Queue: 2 jobs
Job 1
Amino acid sequence: MPDSASSRRLQHQIALVTGGSSGIGSGVAEALAAEGATVFVNYSHSPEGAAEVVKKIEAAGGKAYAVHADVSKEEEVLAMFKEIREKCGTLHILVNNSGIQDDSPFLDMSLEKWQNVINVNLTGQFLCAREAAREFVRRGPQPEISKATGKIICMSSVHEVIPWAGHVNYATSKGGIMQLMKSMAQELAPQRIRVNSIGPGAIATPINASARDTPEEEKSLLTLIPYGRIGEPADIGKVAVWLASDESDYVTGTTLFADGGMTLYPGFADNG
Ligand code: BGC
């Protein structure tokens, strides 16, 4: 953590990280808190995971609260935003991070699997972004705290551009997030609300544990990553801090890929 409070890039800001109780979300929550933000760590199924992240943040001298909501349910999202307003008065940063995979070969994919993933990954981001934007507009600018009136960061994936057989529900949700993010960025820029995405590649979290189970699987995964290492949640936390801070004040409507080069078509590195 920086020495003096004044050097913290997110001092006096309130942040919500959906799905903050594990994986990339917990890395992002810890990184925002280390820069001085008060962080609401959202969870859907794991109060224990959220409590653990809050504990870690507090042990490092930061401030955090656990907050429950299944982001695919409108009434739960509304209740979560009400709770945040009651506790802290407003919100400055939303990290729309909750996401699931529910994989299946296309021919066997049930409507339930399709809808589960679209509901959490895409509709959940819409509902949370709409409530955050409404709060930013209600509160109005606070230039002493941040140049932008509000910041929304959508957790996308390399699969917003890389097709993914066996995961069409997931890849479709991420392609949808790209247009959701860009259209919101276009519509909300006049209100000085910045909207961007992070496109992580393979980050070591529970969501892709099955692709890293054995040394052979890990080796095969590494062939897709020119930079030669699997990412860590902290790699994404650093990107989120930058996108939430005034350092990126002129950046809106962009996906920042943090993927060790996975989107560089590594299969073409050797003469195609
Ligand atoms: C998925 C991971 C996968 C990575 C790269 C992510 O969006 O959730 O399971 O390892 O993309 O393919």
Note: The chain has a mean pLDDT of 97.
Job 2
Amino acid sequence: MPHHDSPTPSSSSPHDADWWRQAVIYQIYPRSFADSDGDGLGDIPGVTSRLPYLADLGVDAVWLSPFYPSQLADGGYDVADYRDVDPRLGTLDDFDEMVATAHRLGLKIMVDIVPNHSSDQHVWFQEALRAAPGAAARERYVFRDGRGDDGELPPTDWPSSFGGPAWTRVADGQWYLHLYAPQQPDFNWDNPEVREDFHDTLRFWSDRGVAGFRVDVAHGLAKDLRAPLRDLGDQQSYQPDALPVDGSHPLWDRDAVHEIYRGWRQVFNTYDPPRFAVAEAWVGTSRRMAYASADGLGQAFNFDFLGARLDADEMRATIETALADARDVGATSTWVLSNHDVVRHVSRYALPGDHRKRDVEAWLLTDGREPAPDLAAGERKARAAALLMLALPGSAYVYQGEELGLPEVADLDRADLQDPMWVRSGGRVKGRDGCRVPLPWTTEGTSFGFGSGGSWLPQPSGWGRYAAEAQSGDAGSFLELYREALRLRRTLVADEALAWAGSQEPAPQGLLHFERAGGWRTASNLSDEPVRLPQGEVLLASAPLTGDTLPPWTTVWLRTGAASVSRSGR
Ligand code: NOJ
């Protein structure tokens, strides 16, 4: 396949302030992407060496999960220094070299900001530990006295998202708050020093040429820390859709959080083009887009799409809501099928029935044996879902390895697990390591081309069959499907409108069918029965077509030559 000529530069100019509105952003989990020095850990020079592959794939930007100094208590989301590179992953010079190479190739770089908590190795937390109760150094975090006669009970009933209480006691008897692992103390965002420091961090990376930020736990910063702290009682279990819609939860999705992001926006807007951010906010659908407003971060991850069953009605409803909500705040929607926190979607779709989060966790605990996955079905559905996602208006976030059709590694040995969820849940949740196994680049060799010294999580023996090298040039492969889809997308994407086709007559059961401006349409058959192929010249299909039928679990892109759809998209 003629994909190896010089990479196509991004269609947007370097000063295009709107580049992110319909971008394809590739998520790199740096420790698992490419290892340049053979220590088994992916690193920044490894990323740089593979940037031509990403330019060739046709993405617009790369988002790097944390690469900062970290003791890896939570895969790098425990940051010891927000303005440096972990020495195991490289140096700031390596980072600058990566940015320069990306820019030469027409790629933008985004980094992950983790503002809810630092690592307990952060100088501020170390200082807080040395300071006395009530000292200013403790006020950057959340230290409180305990309850009980001797303060031996945690200050509240707040749970950690990784299991166990959200409080840990220090030597002098006070407790500190950590909504995640004990090695991840929560910042006190009521403290102006914390706010200022994050502005400095945003400037630090923006000055180095970073185009945008992914904001970790964006909905957690503004807690109600007034005395007396409120117990959660029956609000303990965390369900995004069950959070109060008036922002009254003591911990999550409080309205005051948006004031923080208005401050960030002012920092972003001092740059040309303005920097942009996408919020990771696990909140109810109706509250999500507040994070994406023009005076806020810009975009918010739409996890409803990831969580929806591959069912035409459910997908259609999810898409409609996401598009309408985004339009309301002048943003665009995002589309995500996988990331470093969820079971890879090939495997989710390979499981029978309606496999939602809890079922998938139970499946992982059987090491992926029960129920038996049908990988061929999962791959077919994943290909159909990819072409659906990439046809939608807004930005698609592609998780590394998704373009290779990687499945979850569900049978990792318990002894190899690194995710704090495994230990903190007392073995009830196996955790997220199975989607973080280092990528296979070559069909053979040490760690399949990931690096020369093995890999920090073991790769399955058959991993070579998924290697980029094995798929490149094979027209039927996942990789070539993604390359072709991204190439076409650049030529086709016009504006942000979408119109459902066939609104006069009911669409056949299981068919999702819509038009985009510029004369192209997408039809996804999300059912077990073939349907009639809609009219148009076939541009790309996720599975072979025969005659004028659209086979089960297949998406097709068609050119219609019709005039643009209306701006409203309705
Ligand atoms: C969300 C990140 O994606 C996840 O990996 C991490 O464990 C939590 N936030 C805590 O930072």
Note: Residues 312-328 form the longest helix (17 residues).
